[in-house]
Amino acid sequence: MLRGDVKGEVISSETNPKGNAHIVVLKEDKGRYVNHLAVEFFGKTLEAGQTIQVGDVVRVSGFVASREWQGRWFTAFKAMSATVVGGKVKHTKPAPSESDDPADDVEF
Hints:
Blueprint: E1 2-15, E2 21-29, E3 34-42, H1 46-51, E4 57-69, E5 72-86
Parallel strand pairs: 3-5
Antiparallel strand pairs: 1-2, 1-4, 2-3, 4-5
């Protein structure tokens, strides 16, 4: 079994309709490339996953698991533990420049 840790900003956090799993999507931005990973919280980790909020920076320990369903294979990263390592990430819009002012628009 493949095990590992991932760290990233939470961009999505929701419980599935059955209520037996919670999916958190992490974004890891290292400049040129942005990676996303869906992390599944279930069983004993379900409650921990439900406390994670969008904007948190978290470190998740888990394992990769695959399963077969109707002749197709599905792979998931399943959480064993999670720790919030950073507060809410604040995304700010850049200050408007002079060219962003609608009054400066010229009709043609």
